[in-house]
Amino acid sequence: MASSGENIAAGQASASAVVEGWLESPGHCRNIMSDAFTEMGMANAEDSESRYSTYWTQTLGNPR
Fold this sequence. Notes:
elongated, three-stranded antiparallel β-sheet, SCP domain-containing protein, alpha+beta, 3 strands, single chain, CAP_sf, CAP_dom
């Protein structure tokens, strides 16, 4: 059965800071540690004119 999940964050300056924050958050950590997911991708986008300037997303999945 295919599964998917997502974690998002904004404002952190580094990938390690983002992951640390996700691991401290029960819901985000549950996504990261879930046995339902076997694959992961992570990306960030910069927008100096926005409120947080740096945005992060992590997608988690399990292919069919």
